[in-house]
Fold this sequence. Notes:
60% helix; 552 residues; alpha+beta; six-stranded antiparallel beta sheet; five-stranded antiparallel beta sheet; MetI-like fold
Amino acid sequence: MKKLTKWIADGTPWVWLNAAAVSASILLVVGLLILIGARGMGHFWPLPVTKIIYQQADESQVMLAGQIREQEQITARRLRESGVEVAQGSEHVRRYLLKVGNRDINGEDFRWLLEPSIISTSKPYSMVVFERQEWGVFIGLLIGVREDGKLLESADVWGEFQRNLGRVNQLRDEIEDLEKGSIGGVNYRLERLRLKQRGLEMDGSDTVQALAGIASERDELQQEYVRLEGQLGNLYSQLQRDAVVVTTASGRELELPMATIVDAYRPNQMDLADKIGYFFHNAWKFVADDPREANTEGGIFPAIFGTVLMVLLMSVFVTPLGVVAAVYLKEYAHQGLFTRFIRIAVNNLAGVPSIVYGVFGLGFFVYTLGGSIDQLFFREALPAPTFGTGGLFWAALTMALLTLPVVIVSTEEGLSRIPRSIREGSLALGATKWETLWRTVLPMASPGIMTGLILAVARAAGEVAPLMLVGVVKLAPALPLDANAPFLHLERKFMHLGFHIYDVGFQSPNVEAARPLVYATALLLVIVIVLLNLVAIQVRNRLSERYRGLET
């Protein structure tokens, strides 16, 4: 009994309990990451196409072809309650989720199939999966290629198709560069001229000379626009020239315009090396492409770009504010009742729900500050708001306000670890208090500052609720950073990985198609946060090594 009492008194049980809690937390996090990783990375793997003869409830048979995405066992009782007839004596029935594609023909992308109703299955060697810009994927057989209205007579139909697909993708890239680059720049400058003219009219400075200069510049831009529009029309005519002849699993023949096909592959002909190569090909497209089909197809590059840019801007805003506030509280403010009250308020701010910060950002930053900025500097654009609506700038400021308490507390802790003798030695050598703070104390406290920044980045990158009120949108027409002056457009709305997960997971009209994208985007969000934190951690470690000897 005495040994047990001594064992409890020396704190050993609490050490083991703490170790067990940490181990359980690590296991939970690792398990969650494995689940997200397996579901997310599986989205990029090229699944084989299975051809199935299926008996429907009315005893008729139908020919289906698709990729088996999931399988599960459900109780026969559940099926009977939903009106599906199941053989007596069966307690559990296995069913498969088949991605049949061809939504423009079938009206649905996915279909659940009961194993007892499957008559036969096969994996035809020549089945092709076409990825399209709209209507999802098409699964069927490639019969021929029609070039400029003529069906090509070639023994290598797949080779002719790949050659035409490469040409179409090149044309599509040229069209995108022309629309978003040259034509977008001309439209941007035309809009700036319109606003400049309206500003002159509002100020009463619309003299004949000023208007003549604007008109001359507008004419040049209009001529440039007409020239670029001609090039665009020529590219579109070349894009719409070709088509492919395909058949569905049931034998229905139809034509698909080449302009709508993004990619194609034959999974049943792939070996392991081909599948691995196509896996990385799909993963790269997911990272580098723009979204399609209400965010259920394509990539998420704008969301990655918006997330990283917003976090970087937030870091620029929150770091100076947090450091200045912490330095004042620790080094300059009188340590009395008022200072303790401020520290309590800062700690309480860390526990305020994030949506409250979003409401504050919408009311104060967007409507009050943004509206005032529009009245002072963008009167010619009113009533259309410029800064008086949600945008990247207000989102970054809102996130900076949300993470400010974390940076203040971490910086104060870093300042507290600096020995008093360091300050006294610096002052004794003739340095002023500001010189001591700037050249000695702050550099030594920089690891603590970086710790606060790491925590701030991790929280800001994953927040969704406040961003929904201050600038994040489902689909942004243009990136906040482009080649048009002033290059960084802080007033523009942007996409965010966290909001993309919410939108695809809960607002998508095609739930089954969106489900793997949720896991893939969540995995990518974790990777982005880890990479941002690793950069900050590396900087913090280097600073810790540099000033470690001075703290002892």
